[in-house]
Amino acid sequence: MSEENMALPEGVTEIYNDFFQLAKLDVSIPKSVVDGGKIVTVDSDMTVKEAVKLLAEHEILSAPVRDVKAPEDASWMDKYTGTIDAINLMYWLLDKEDGVPPDTLHDLLQKEFTDDPIQDVLDADPFAQRFVPFVPLDAENNHMLDVMLLLGKYGLHRAYVVHTCGDIENVITQSTVVKFLNENKSMMVSTFNRTVQELGLGQKEPVSVTRDDTFWTAFKVMKDHGVSAVPVTELDGTICGVVSARDARLMVTRPTRLRFVSQPLSLFDDLHVSPFDHQTVCVKRTSTLEEVVDRLLSTGVHRVFVVDDSQRPEGVISLRDVITCLIVEPKDSTMADYFVQRGRQ
Q: Are 328 and 6 in contact (CB under 8 A)?
């Protein structure tokens, strides 16, 4: 869990909390997670192979896992067992091959271990960074503050909104919440005008990899440190790229990329393809929160790196950090109970 926000005065966060509690959960469903008007879900009896193909077909990073043994009228607690994620699937698959997979995803999915049930993968690693519990919200009884707590303090990457019967009717992502914050920044002008330094954002130096490291090395570093991205640096420490969860998804949606997983990252720089196909988004400690949010939204990235005058990374600010810095969990909140129910402390 992240630290509670201590950068803003208590009176300010109370005002923000009141505003967020008035905001209803009426954010539209992203098209990328809709299949015939429904949220894309992975059945618990699907194999790893089938789950990978499903995510690839819909070009999505994550999907809830539905317990096929649960009846249609079951509650969400009984109907969904967790959330499966493309990057964790790639970790699992590549680990089976010790980081040296076949040339294509098609060949990898012919391996016998890809016939394992996806639920077995969840059960084997229930506390992996994004094999997260399925924690939904009710549009009638929850509000934007609850969403921000889930996606901020509790670190989930998306919040599912469910009907009383347990069916999913909406998905709210961290990007959607930051867009909501930007649209309502007139309510938070003084905070949006404060600098990264003043808000205490990006204080921890990010773990990094170099151009000589491989994708497999970068993925292992991400998994070991529980992060969804790492900066790529030159030998002198200056930032030149970033490896992120997006690149794991490319391994799924562009199957021939798999052959390069054991190649040095410098190869991709020479080819001008991901993770070097766009400018790495950076800010300074003197940048304001408004500038950070503008960069996040205009580029569509999920984090910006804080760099010094020599372009060496000295911090990172994620969508989660932006959300978290504006709120404090109310003392009477029962949000933690969701995680106790799912066995995640």
A: no
